[in-house]
Amino acid sequence: MTGKSIAQADPMADKLISEWIDQRYWLFDLERNTSHDPETILRQFEYARMRYNCDVFLVDNIMSVDFSGYSDRDFNRIQSKFTQMLSTFCKRKGVHVHLVVHPRKSTSDNNANVSSDDVSGSADITNRADNVFFLTTHQEPGETEKKPVLQVFKNRDFGSHRHQWLDFDPKSRRFFQSQTGDPKRPYGWDMAARQTTITEIPAEDNSLPLPF
To answer: Taking the model in full, what pTM does it have?
Structure first.
C-alpha cells in the first residue's frame, strides 16, 4: 500500500540477537505498567541497578512521565525536580541516564537557531543536565540534501561545543559517523555466530612441532 520496504532479521539472526540481549536489556512497558510517575521510575531504576547491575538508563521521553498529580502551575517545577532526581541518581550510583526532550514546536521549523534553552518544558532540564545533545537535520556544505547532524550544546566536563555530521542506514536504522563510519559494524551477537576457519597445512611443512 505504501511502497515501503521494511527490513527484518532472518530467523537465525533473530535468535542470536534475542540470546545476546537476554539479561542485558530491560524495558519498562507503559502498556503493561500504567504507573509511570517520577517516583515509580526512580524506584524501577534503583531496582534495576541493584538487581541486574544496569548502568545505562533511558527515559523516552519526558512527556511520557506522569505529572498528573501536580497542578499546571507546578508543571515546570516538577520537571526540574525530576531532572535533578535523575542527576542525583547518576552521581550516587555511577551510572548514565539519557533523558529525551523535544524542542518547542515554535522552533521545530528553524533548527539552525535552536539552543539548549528551546526545550519543550522547564529550562532547568538542560541547566541540571551534565550534557546536552541535539539531533536534527541540516544541509551540509556542498550537499543538495539534508542529512543528520548531532550538535553538542553542553558538556560540563570539557566544555566542548561542536557538531558531528552523520549518515543514516534505513535498513538497520543506525546512525553512524559520516564518511568514516560503517553501518555494518559488527556487534556482539554477530561475532557470536562467526565460525572458526580451519586451514590445512601442507604435509611437507616441517616447521611445525611434532604431535604428542
So the answer is: 0.77
